[in-house]
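Slack export, channel: ligand-projects

TW: morning all. Re-posting the request from yesterday since it got buried. We need the structure predicted with the small molecule present, not the apo form. The ligand is magnesium ion; the SMILES is in the block with the sequence. No rush, but it would help planning for next week.
GE: picking it up
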Amino acid sequence: MKSIKVVIVGPFNAGKTTLVKTLSEISMTHDVEVTSPQERAKKRTTTVGMDFGIVNIGEGYVVRLFGSPGQPRFSFMWRVFMPGTDGVIFMVDSSDREALPEAAREFARARSTFSGLPMVVAANKQDVPDAMPPEVVRFVLDVPSTVPVIPCVATDRGMAWRVLGTLLEEVFRVNRIQV
Ligand SMILES: Nc1nc2c(ncn2[C@@H]2O[C@H](COP(=O)(O)OP(=O)(O)OP(=O)(O)O)[C@@H](O)[C@H]2O)c(=O)[nH]1
Ligand SMILES: [Mg+2]
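GE: finished. pasting the full token output, ligand included:
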């Protein structure tokens, strides 16, 4: 069984853990109570360590998903995830305009940390009324034209699969894998 390693990064509250749970047959997540009032205003728990999931995609391949914590103080974890990474999903909460400057900084950092690797941006929470459409997310985060921005609702299996599938197509293309 061959395995593909996908890392999911993005700011606090973007929906990374939700995506891993939706996609994965087996998932392991570790969320604990948040400690800061700003974070508590958004949600009560946050990922510490990492999320892990496994998706069987057939043809003798499994995808191992590694979801990173979103709090900036854990950003050193990106380097821990780095070895062996085949592709990266950058998630952003498209409904949270206040968090966008931080999301743009995180995106720039993700591009430099994972430079040269296949990447897609998941414009998450498209079900929230007034969520920014993917084209606006692309503009605000300054996403280069080579990186797809995919509309996402992390709880929706079809949409979650489209995000992963788009990334995998690129992973297969750059590694010259035919499936
Ligand atoms: N409406 C809506 N809510 C979502 C969606 N995806 C995630 N959520 C909610 O957004 C909140 C954050 O989701 P998480 O999956 O915990 O986000 P995270 O990126 O793992 O957060 P951290 O690990 O704390 O950085 C939770 O309350 C989810 O239920 C979505 O597509 N739409
Ligand atoms: Mg999380």
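GE: first-pass observations. The CA atoms of residues 172 and 178 lie 7 Å apart. The longest strand covers residues 2-9.
TW: perfect, thank you
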